[in-house]
Amino acid sequence: MVDRIEERLQSLGIALPGPFPPHDPLDAVIVYQGRARTSGQLPRDHDGAIVQGVLGSSGPEGISVEMGAIAARWCALNALSVLRLELGSLDRIERVLTVLGFVSSAPGFAQQPAVVDGASQLLYEVFGTAGRHSRSAVGVAALPRGGAVEIEVEVALRE
After folding, report:
1. Contact 94, 130 (CB under 8 A)
2. Is 22 a domain residue?
3. Which of 80, 93, 112, 130 has the smallest C-beta neighbourhood within 10 Å, fewest atoms?
4. Number of domains observed in the structure of the chain
5. Residue 9 Cα to chain centre, angstroms
6. Which residues, 6+ apart, have CB-to-CB distance to 85 below 8 Å?
7. Which H or E run includes 9?
8. Do β-strands 35-38 and 149-157 pair in parallel, antiparallel, or remain unpaired?
């Protein structure tokens, strides 16, 4: 039996990267009382390369809002990848509850929501109305491994 969400991913032409679990003693996903929450996911592509950069910077490390949104999309794909590994199937997800997005930002940059939209749009594409969620988009001075974006996702599980 093919999972409904796996079919949806295939129809969208999406292959999940990874998974790329965190180092010990951290867990990629915690499942507790009908919910699952991911650790922060960096924008890793299929090869594990991280989209690096600082939004709003005019220096060589600067990247565009559009590239930041692509990085946020990679983060969401990585979140789905670790959720699938932990849950056995993405069909166990009843609803996406919240997304917490951190954007590596230069002083004065205020377009964090437009960047994190890349993750939000991906989750909506995959889960439809069950992918709608609450969200925060926060600018930070730096992220692990020079990542441009980091995303955490919390979902409600089917019983």
Report:
1. yes
2. no
3. 130
4. 1
5. 15
6. 19, 21, 28, 29
7. helix 4-11
8. antiparallel
Residue 75, domain CATH: 3.30.1330.40
Residue appearing with tokens 């439809």: 128
Stretch (H or E) spanning 73: helix 65-87
Assigned token pair, 17? 């990267």
Task: Evaluate whether residue 75 is within a structural domain.
Answer: yes
Using alpha carbons only, give the angle 20, 25, 29 rounded to the nearest 5 degrees.
Answer: 50
Place of tokens 């965190």: 22
Residue type, 144: P
Q: What is the pTM of this model?
A: 0.96
**3 state SS of 49:** coil
- Asked if residue 8 is part of any domain, the answer here is no
How many Å from the N-terminal Cα to the C-terminal Cα in the chain?
19
User: pLDDT digit of tens for each residue in the chain (159 aa)?
Assistant: 568 999 999 999 999 999 998 988 999 999 999 999 999 999 999 999 999 999 999 999 999 999 999 999 999 999 999 999 999 999 999 999 999 999 999 999 999 999 999 999 999 999 999 999 999 999 999 999 999 999 999 999 998
